[in-house]
Design a protein that fits this description.
With 582 residues, this protein is of the alpha/beta class. It contains 15 helices and 25 strands. The strands form eight sheets. The chain has an eight-stranded mixed β-sheet with strand order 3-16-11-4-5-6-17-25, with helices on both faces. Strands 21-20-24-22-23 form a five-stranded mixed β-sheet, with helices on one face. Strand 22, helix 15 (515-525) and strand 23 form a beta-alpha-beta unit. Helix 2 packs across helix 9 (345-358), helix 5 packs across helix 6 and helix 5 (261-270) runs antiparallel to helix 9 (345-358).
Length: 582
């Protein structure tokens, strides 16, 4: 950046005030008017700087070593020339600060990546990142600006790093101990952070895993396994966890970010501590968390103890620990977006170092530049429109009373919640989406579609339908037929195999005199009104309707109509709201 792009003292590029001290190898803040430095003296054009006495600080002969260079300024060069841009005259400093401020306020690790935007010339940050090749588990080529983004944030309990050996299970290869699916809306107006319990019983699919020598090893899947074994066990990498989440939720995961214990310790310290509130005195010997009731600012070991505790709050379970972790992350996000953090170069660089050294990512976002691009997509999301929630679960009915150790999905609540995420529906009140919904409801087309669903429904035994697969997963037609006959009682249904042509969206074709059958089938399958295609002439008796499963079909019984409100009783909290742990 040339001199004309910088302003004076209040307009200096923040990056220019951080320089490498050759004695310590560390970057240090060198402000001209700081208490540690005497005010600088400008020199007239064509003059030379005054010589320092031998042995004085910063002189070549000083025993303390070479001085740390001062910030680069817009001084006139010897012999004349233009000075740096004056405040208010188009200098780039003010605009750059606005960009830096705009990148704050998303998920903690992503927010840090965005905050690095002004410091990209520190090439060593790229070297800090640990990049994993996950093959086709994610989305290749980064992300599309007109599509939702799904990032899997994984906290591993691997005891790597100084000071972590004492937490028990020191030889563990690590599990998916904390897992959050971070869904960013297509229009970037909102995001949902879905926590997945580590003790959830689910199926871990087969997983092709890249080996150090470049080969691929197929790791067999496991039915009825704990979710946390999708990472580390049997050599599974984060791509295996991503595949497990896709199978569990029906949501394609694009990228992953993984952090260990040190991430919590280092990030909380770099930000100057994370504010938390506890409703009662806490003395948990297992996690080593000891706090009095009230407000605290935690960093380092204390912060790690807070997110690890399972015995301090609620019912002393992993589900209560998830709530505590969500509260901590929300508070960290608020702290990172605060003016005190965004205007402190020292905190910025500390966060950059802490985040990159503690972070593992997939190759799709495996550089500072890519992480910055990603953060740019998220910078406009208001914290009030970021919602933390947890996949609804119940105690595992297969385990005896009094010895419950695992959980299973509570389908009645989980499926509507997952439909909302798959359908890109916000869990918060977003003005833009509300207005769009009102506009859509006011159109004649919408009113006509709704009218199609008004009227009587035929009994299941009277519904006739032929099922075709026009773009759904392999076996969709046969699976749907089995589901319709065995679960819904639609016995007059047939599997006609593959459709003559692929279709993007599932559709049901029917005659006017089959409308009652169409409504009944749409209700069963959760088809939106837009999927119903009515013909012009009545059908002959015993003529079946035609159901073609499109690329949007996720499976038999999976509704394609996303609800507009979260199911009653689903736990959730917005990132902008401080919550006191109880």
């Amino acid at each position: 950046m040339d001199a004309q792009s910088r302003g004076r003292a209040d307009e200096i590029d923040p990056a220019d005030q951080w320089v490498l001290n050759p004695r310590t190898g560390n970057y240090e803040l060198r402000l001209e008017q700081s208490a540690a430095q005497a005010p600088s003296q400008r020199r007239a054009p064509g003059t030379t700087p005054p010589r320092r006495a031998p042995g004085s600080p910063g002189s070549p002969a000083s025993p303390a070593g070479p001085a740390v260079p001062g910030p680069r300024r817009g001084d006139a060069p010897p012999g004349g020339g233009r000075r740096g841009a004056r405040p208010g005259r188009g200098g780039g400093g003010g605009r750059r600060k606005k960009i830096l401020v705009a990148t704050g306020g998303t998920l903690a690790f992503v927010l840090v990546a965005g905050s690095i935007a002004g410091y990209l010339y520190y090439d060593h940050l790229n070297g800090n990142l640990n990049v994993t090749d996950i093959g086709d588990a994610g989305t290749s080529g980064g992300f599309k600006k007109d599509q939702p983004i799904n990032i899997l944030v994984i906290g591993t309990d691997k005891r790597s790093g100084a000071g972590n050996e004492g937490y028990g299970d020191a030889g563990s290869v690590g599990h998916a101990d904390t897992t959050i699916l971070f869904h960013v809306a297509k229009d970037r107006s909102n995001a949902t952070a879905l926590s997945i319990p580590r003790d959830l019983i689910t199926d871990v699919p087969n997983c092709p895993t890249k080996q150090p020598d470049g080969s691929t090893k197929d790791i067999p899947g496991e039915r009825g396994a704990r979710f946390n074994t999708s990472l580390g066990q049997a050599g599974r990498d984060p791509g295996c966890t991503m595949r497990t989440v896709k199978e569990l939720t029906g949501i394609q995961v694009d990228h992953f970010m993984m952090a260990d214990f040190n991430a919590v310790k280092n990030l909380s310290t770099a930000v100057g501590g994370v504010p938390v509130c506890v409703a009662k005195d806490v003395n948990d010997k297992a996690s080593k968390l000891k706090l009095t009731a009230g407000d605290h600012r935690l960093e380092g070991e204390q912060a790690l103890a807070f997110v690890r505790t399972r015995h301090a709050f609620g019912q002393r379970s992993d589900l209560d620990r998830i709530k505590t972790q969500q509260q901590f992350l929300g508070s960290m996000m608020r702290e990172m977006k605060s003016k005190e953090t965004l205007t402190s170069p020292q905190k910025f660089l500390s966060l950059a170092e802490a985040a990159t050294k503690s972070l593992s990512v997939d190759s799709g976002i495996g550089s500072i530049a890519k992480l910055t691009d990603l953060a740019g997509e998220l910078k406009s999301i208001d914290l009030k429109n970021i919602t933390f929630t947890t996949l609804p679960v119940i105690d595992n009915p297969a385990e005896p009373v009094g010895a419950k150790a695992t959980v299973v999905v509570k389908q009645a609540q989980a499926e509507p919640l997952l439909q909302m995420i798959r359908g890109d529906v916000s869990l918060t009140e977003v003005e833009k989406k509300e207005q769009a919904a009102k506009d859509a409801a006011a159109t004649d087309a919408k009113a006509k579609l709704d009218a199609l669903m008004q009227g009587p429904r035929a009994a299941a035994k009277d519904v006739r339908v032929d099922v075709y697969n026009g773009g759904g997963p392999a076996g969709s037609a046969s699976g749907t037929l089995t589901w319709l006959q065995n679960t819904k009682g639609v016995l007059k249904s047939s599997n006609l195999g593959n459709a003559p042509a692929k279709v993007a969206a599932t559709q049901l074709e029917y005659a006017p005199n089959q409308a009652d059958q169409a409504r009944a089938l749409a209700d069963m399958m959760g088809l939106p009104a837009t999927a119903l295609k009515i013909g012009t002439a009545d059908a002959a008796p015993k003529t079946p309707m035609k159901l073609t499963l499109g690329a949007d079909f996720k499976g038999a019984g999976v509704s394609m109509t996303a609800p507009q409100q979260a199911p009653e009783g689903v736990q959730r909290v917005e990132a902008d709201k401080p919550v006191c742990a109880k």
